[in-house]
Amino acid sequence: MLPRVCNYLAVSILCFALWRFGNAGPVGARESPLSLTGTTCNALARSLLWNVSAVLAMDHLFSGFDCTQQNAEVHIRTQTMSACTPQNSGCTHGTVLNIDENECLQKILEDLHYYRKTFGAYSNSELTKTVVRSIDDLMQNCFSVSVMDNPPAEESMDYQKSFQERLQLCKVLKGFNLRAITINRVFNYILAK
Predict the structure, then answer these.
(1) How far is CA 167 from CA 55, 108, 136, 158, 160, in A?
(2) How distant, in Å, are the alpha carbons of 23, 46, 58, 91, 180 from that of 184?
(3) Which of 13, 97, 142, 156 sits a CA distance of 20 to 30 A from 124?
(4) Terminal Cα-to-Cα distance of the chain (whole angstroms)
(5) Whole-model pTM?
């Protein structure tokens, strides 16, 4: 009986290991751990947050409604918040917070790709010159990602024409503003170590 249990246990461990490390990821997925590169990542993350906040303050982009009164629409598919929340996030003093930096940075990078594609689809030069450029700078200088790695948006949309489209832009920008705050906090934590 004992040899059967040992054999079963050994086979189970082997199967789990093969499954865990043998899963194929999406094409272009990173095999090596991510890390922040460059010495200007904190400044670029702050610039991103500032640019998103500045675009949100442009009343002419949101004519017909008060954007500050709208709810944020956050991209949750990447699960960035759960990946970047410390596992031991109690309020005790002197505790070192533990996060899986590789997973957290991967989720942030996925968010940046998503928002770059989303904002790139808007035919708005102010959005492109500020927010999209800040996303590009952050990806190129902190993650060593070429803008060429990001395919251009399939179609350009003129979101100035429709009330619903301007309202959607407001909500997505507010959601990205929250994500930019998260990015700043994560970068500050990782780079302070």
Answers:
(1) 14, 25, 25, 13, 10
(2) 31, 6, 22, 20, 6
(3) 142
(4) 51
(5) 0.73
Q: Which two tokens stand for residue 105?
A: 């940075």
Is 152 contained in some domain? yes
Give me the residue label for tokens 């949750």.
Answer: 76
SS3 144: coil
DSSP at 157? B
Tell whether the torsion through CA atoms of 30, 36, 37 and 41 is positive or negative.
Answer: positive
- Asked whether residue 18 is assigned to any structural domain, the reply reads no
Phi then psi for 191, rounded to 5 degrees? -80, -15
Q: Give residue 15's identity as a one-letter amino acid code.
A: C
Per-residue pLDDT tens listing for the chain (193 residues): 555 544 444 444 434 333 333 344 444 444 445 677 767 999 999 999 999 999 999 999 998 899 999 999 988 887 888 888 887 655 555 556 678 888 999 999 999 999 999 999 988 899 999 999 999 999 989 986 665 454 544 444 554 568 888 999 999 999 999 999 999 999 998 888 7
30 lies in some domain? no
Range of the domain at 143: 35-86+104-192
